[in-house]
Design brief:
354 residues; alpha+beta; Beta-Lactamase; Helix Hairpins; Heat Shock Protein 90; 3 domains; 6-stranded antiparallel beta sheet; 5-stranded mixed beta sheet; 9 helices; 42% helix; elongated; binds adenosine-5'-diphosphate
Length: 354
């Protein structure tokens, strides 16, 4: 898959040799070749997905400045640039760019790699491992104490049943925790925009509702959704389902029985807003930022009861940011909460790309 300007035929002096195109397409990172006037004559698909090129223009002023230096000095330059992941939110790609002059007709080659991302993943993983070991100690400690209690009560069948039942629930808690840890580390490690597909918003919402239906039925909570704004976003389908699933699951878990959870969508200025509203316990103002931290719960005892791990919202925040979006909360204690996942919509690529 490559993008080559259509109006350049082989006789055009700016047309690139097939071998160069082949080589660039095989590289791990992304690349772009610019003719004078910073006209792109070749680029790998990732360049547009990363947002470096839009409407055939380089979007980063820092990159343009580096290219100018290379044109003036004919020496290669290496630098770092930051590209917003989307029109909203704070998610950014931090990229390392190497700009080289190609002798042929004043062409400039830009090689792009995501090294800073690798460093960040390393740092996040280090902190995460410290938190995980702390969180795992609680259910493991409980299991060990309960197994001792079972041994001590071996002649008292009633106590054995009681302790064994508690062992089952601790084991389930451990399994859920491990699953959430795997989910979060997957979200943190992968970049959904690198293997992006066009994903229908209605589809991901319906899938997420399906996954939460049994939980909702158990608590006699009605989940409603009527599609109002069809939209497509670019990203990872499973991650998007997971994020919406987590928001619906929380809406159910932190609401009294027999209440309603409603899901609505609204499309405005190229952003699709997926809102999940509950009639639940709400979130105190001072906690609104902290609930997105890993393992943070407003009420650890209640979260434990519902089987919460404290990781759900950090997953949502990561998915939003990696997709160039954001999460917003509106909440009033004892009235309810609305969590809005806001994502940039995907417009079909321009002609000339494949
Ligand atoms: P948990 O697994 O504990 O639910 P989350 O990361 O999903 O972890 O949420 C963090 C905390 O935020 C929860 O423990 C809860 O205190 C609060 N919270 C999340 N969603 C809601 C909601 N819809 N209503 C009220 N409180 C919520």
């Amino acid at each position: 898959m490559k993008f080559l300007r259509k109006d350049l035929d082989e006789s055009d002096p700016r047309a690139l040799p097939e071998m160069l195109i082949e080589t660039l397409s095989q590289l791990d990172g992304d690349s772009i070749v610019l003719a004078p006037g910073e006209i792109p004559i070749f680029s790998t698909p990732g360049i547009e997905i990363l947002g470096i090129l839009r409407d055939e223009r380089i979007q980063s002023p820092e990159l343009l400045a580096t290219i100018r230096v290379v044109r003036r000095t004919h020496n290669q330059q290496v630098g770092k640039i930051e590209i917003p992941r989307g029109p909203i939110g704070v998610g950014k790609h931090e990229l390392t760019v190497k700009v080289l002059p190609l002798t042929k007709d004043d062409l400039v080659l830009v090689l792009v790699s995501d090294e800073s991302e690798a460093q960040r993943v390393h740092d996040v993983r280090r902190d995460f491992v410290a938190n995980i070991s702390h969180e795992l100690k609680t259910p493991i400690g409980a299991l060990s104490l309960l197994s001792e209690a079972v041994l001590g009560a071996k002649d008292d069948p009633e106590s054995v049943v009681k302790f064994a039942t508690r062992m089952q629930s601790e084991a389930k808690r451990l399994t859920d925790l491990v699953q959430e840890i795997i989910n979060l580390s997957r979200v943190q490690d992968s970049d959904p925009l690198q293997l992006a597909q066009a994903v229908g918003v209605e589809y991901v919402i319906r899938e997420a509702i399906d996954q939460c239906q049994i939980l909702a039925d158990n608590r006699n909570i009605t989940v409603t959704y009527s599609e109002s704004s069809p939209a497509t976003v670019l990203g990872d389908r499973d991650q998007l389902i997971m994020a919406i699933h987590n928001l619906i699951e929380n809406a159910i878990n932190y609401s009294p029985e027999s209440t309603k959870v409603s899901i609505t969508t609204q499309l405005e200025n190229g952003v699709i807003d997926i809102s999940i509203t509950d009639q639940g316990i709400g979130i105190p103002e001072v906690e609104k930022e902290r609930i997105f931290e890993r393992f943070y719960r407003v009420d650890p005892a209640r979260s434990r009861q519902t089987g919460g791990t404290g990781l759900g919202l950090s997953i949502v925040k990561h998915v939003a940011s990696k997709h160039g979006g954001e999460v917003k909360i509106w909440s009033v204690e004892n009235v309810g909460s609305t969590f809005s996942l806001r994502l940039p919509v995907y417009n079909k690529p321009m002609e000339g790309t494949e």
